[in-house]
Amino acid sequence: MSTFRTINGEIYRITVRSMVVETQEIVVITLVYFLISLALVFVIQFYFSRAWNRRIWKPFFRNLEAMQHFSLQAARPVELVDSNIVEFSELKTEIETLTSRVIYDYNNLKEFTENISHELQTALAIMQAKLENFLNESAISDQQFEELSNLQRHIRRLANLNKKLVLLATLDQRQKNDYQEISLNDLLEEMVINFREISPVEIELEQKK
Asked: Which residues neighbour 81 within 8 Å (Cβ) at sequence distance 6 or greater?
């Protein structure tokens, strides 16, 4: 709305303007735009953080999967992925060191178990055979017979326990599919020596080429 007034001999134009949009509508529109912008920021930040975290944690989850498939039967250290994160890199180094040590100790223990089982099996077989010969051939009293029979039962228990150890070692060897060559001549010579301790019968081996 405009009007003209004469003031001190000069004509002035006076214009009065009113806002078409009310103040309340402006506030509502501003608030809506602010909320939309804030929601977009949160959505963008969420997906960005998710992608970034997935990238950071990817080596960790790959190493975790490798640890889940780790087995002593494989006889090789676990293969892990390195990371740019210092903590993950240190964790990888410690896990590789630990698994290598575990495999080394396991192989040593397995070899020791196989060796001691073999030695025990031979010694127990000789003791059992000699004891049976003594019981069958010697004239002993009833008390001595009972004591020797108890000793024989203990020897059999040890022999059964040793057989279980040998069976476990054999199963483990089959699972690994680790085949190795052996010398039949050396094996037969060892068996002949053991039999000589049981019986005076002479056994000779002849090797043919």
From this structure: 59, 62, 63, 66, 92
| Count of C-beta atoms within a 10 Å radius of residue 72 | 15
Say if residues 148 and 131 touch (Cβ distance below 8 Å). Answer: yes
Contact 129, 152 (CB under 8 A): no
pLDDT, tens digit (0-9, with 9 covering 90-100), for 12-48: 777 766 655 566 777 888 899 999 999 999 999 999 9
Q: Phi and psi of 131, rounded to 5°?
A: -65, -40
CB atoms within 10 A of CB 203: 12
What does DSSP assign to residue 177?
Answer: T
Q: Which domains does the chain have, with CATH numbers?
A: 23-98 (no CATH), 110-198 (1.10.287)
Q: Tell me, yes or no, if the pTM score tops 0.90.
A: no
Ranges assigned E (strand) in 82-191: none
Closest by CA to 100, choosing from 62, 68, 61, 74, is 74
